Amino acid sequence: MTKVELKVKPIENGTVIDHIPANKALQVLKILGLPKKGTNVTLAMNVHSRLGYKDIVKFENRELAHTEIDKISLIAPDATINIIRDYEIVSKNKVRKVNELNGIIKCTNPKCISNTEEPLETKFYLVDSNPITVRCHYCERLVQYDEIYNQFE
C-alpha cells in the first residue's frame, strides 16, 4: 500500500492561523466573519500534529487587525498567526493571552452603562480561560463563552 500525502496549495498573500484547538476552526471563521464572497478560505480540521490534533485556517489577500487577533485568543489562545507575502512567511506570531478586552464584545446586561451611554467602549477582564469567562468592568456581570460566541453571529 502506498502512502498518500494530501497537499494544500500555498497562498501568495494572506494569513494562516495554525495550532487552533481541534474542532474550533469554524468558530474562528465565525469570529472573523468568514467566508465572505471573494475571499478564498482553506480549512483543515483534526489534523494530526506532534502535540495531538489541531485545526488550520488560511485565507488569501487579508491580514488580521489586532482586535481580530484578540477575538481569536478567546477561542484559540495558543494559535499561531502567520502572515504570507509573495508565498513567504514574513511574520509568525503566537496569539497572546488577553487579560483585558476593550471594545470587542458587548455586555449581556441590558442595564449596563456600556449599553446605555454612547460612545462608551466596553471593557472586560478575563476571569477564567477554561471555559472562557469574562467580567464587565462597569457592572461586573460575568459573561460566559456561549454568550460571547453568540455575539459574533
Automatic annotation (TrEMBL):
Pfam families with a match to the protein in the record: PyrI, PyrI_C
GO CC, one annotated term: aspartate carbamoyltransferase complex
Q: Which residues bind Zn(2+)?
A: 107, 112, 136, 139
Give the InterPro entries listed for this entry.
Asp_carbamoyltransf_reg_N, Asp_carbamoylTrfase_reg, Asp_carbamoyltrfase_reg_C, Asp_carbatrfase_reg_C_sf, Asp_carbatrfase_reg_N_sf
Which cofactor does the UniProt annotation name?
Answer: Zn(2+)
Top-rank lineage group of the source organism: Archaea
Q: Name one GO molecular function term.
A: transferase activity
Provide this UniProt record's keywords sorted from A to Z. Metal-binding, Pyrimidine biosynthesis, Zinc
Q: Which residues form the Aspartate carbamoyltransferase regulatory subunit N-terminal domain?
A: 6-95
User: What detail does the entry give on cofactor binding?
Assistant: Binds 1 zinc ion per subunit.
Single biological process term from Gene Ontology: pyrimidine nucleotide biosynthetic process
Keyword Zinc: yes or no?
Answer: yes
Residue ranges occupied by any Aspartate carbamoyltransferase regulatory subunit C-terminal domain in the UniProt entry: 101-148
Annotated PANTHER family: ASPARTATE CARBAMOYLTRANSFERASE REGULATORY CHAIN (PTHR35805)
What's its job? Involved in allosteric regulation of aspartate carbamoyltransferase.
Which family does the UniProt entry place this protein in? Answer: Belongs to the PyrI family.
Q: Subunit comment for this entry?
A: Contains catalytic and regulatory chains.
Protein name, as recorded = Aspartate carbamoyltransferase regulatory chain
* Gene that this polypeptide is encoded by: pyrI
